Amino acid sequence: GESVGLHLPTLSVQEGDNSIINCAYSNSASDYFIWYKQESGKGPQFIIDIRSNMDKRQGQRVTVLLNKTVKHLSLQIAATQPGDSAVYFCAENYGGSQGNLIFGKGTKLSVKP
Amino acid sequence: KAGVTQTPRYLIKTRGQQVTLSCSPISGHRSVSWYQQTPGQGLQFLFEYFSETQRNKGNFPGRFSGRQFSNSRSEMNVSTLELGDSALYLCASSFHMNTEAFFGQGTRLTVV
């Protein structure tokens, strides 16, 4: 079946550096993508989303890039802080319903002070 | 504004038993979805409810069921528990099916 995967299961960065978390998706019909952050003991927290008619979207310290040609999604975090340490998931969806998401396995981001 | 509330937070059950988990969505939200999270399979969609009707269903056996009440609160039930059902069960609510989903902290179910 269709799946969403991640290139890197773990990522360790120095505080203040930029982080890039990658994700591959296989369903070419997917038209909506979301990045979630999950801290230990908590549920996933929405970070940023992007629709398939866009290739870039910026938020506060975060940028999501979408490359539909190679079915690739990335999350860039600028000036990474210790509070950014968490597991990051990408999720895809088609059909508009945000309650029916296909999640990737997750990348653990560890920020060294 | 209170977030999504899931009860109980932790639960230990024996194989063969059944369990009911509860989710109270954010006030005003009418869509509730359930996910199972395990280290091996990650986050997997169980089902989605909107206006008391199941709108979407994931690829889980019939032992997994759910429902939504008129106040949008939702419950999910797992019957004849198996060891492999041990997981974090997450509930997410949204105002409508195509708006941002907010997750609760989950219910940690351990089957022994």
Description:
The complex is a heterodimer of chains A (113) and B (112). By secondary structure, chain A is mostly beta strands. Chain A has strands spanning 4-5, 10-14, 19-25, 32-38, 45-51, 56-58, 62-67, 72-77, 86-93, 102-103, 107-112. In chain A, strands 2, 4, 5, 9, 10 and 11 form a six-stranded mixed beta sheet that branches. In chain A, strands 1-3-8-7-6 form a five-stranded antiparallel beta sheet, with no helix packed on it. In chain A, a hairpin with a 3-residue loop joins strand 6 and strand 7 (62-67). Chain A is globular. Chain B has 112 residues and is mainly beta. Chain B has strands at residues 5-7, 10-13, 19-24, 31-38, 42-50, 53-57, 64-68, 74-78, 87-94, 102-103, 107-111. Chain B is globular and about 35 Å long. The model of chain B has no long low-confidence stretch (mean pLDDT 94). Chain A binds chain B through residues 36, 41-46, 49, 89, 91, 96-106, and chain B through 4, 31-33, 35, 42-45, 48, 50, 55-56, 58, 90, 92, 94, 97-106.
